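re: that chain from earlier
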Amino acid sequence: MIFALLQAQPQPAWVSLLPIVGMGLLFYFLILRPQSKQRKEMEARLSKLKSGDEVLLSGGLYATIDRVDEKDARILYLKLGSNTVKAKRQAVVALATEPETQN
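^ sequence. v structure.
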């Protein structure tokens, strides 16, 4: 009986949009916002790299920064053993000395 009464009353159009708006807000706060915060933190860490820092590269190699290119700050010269290689700053995943966070 109650179900039939609820069905008989017309609802405003905005009520049907509430679940969609709710899912959008949930998606933003659970996925987009944490990812953008993590990306900003990583960009800040990458901008602070300097000579002598030990880093972990995206390929899984540990290297020491030999120097930063004066002309293009996006280029790093890394020391791998006795060799020096040239790499992009984006190849650095993390500092080797920083504590890893559990996600």
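The mean pLDDT is 85.
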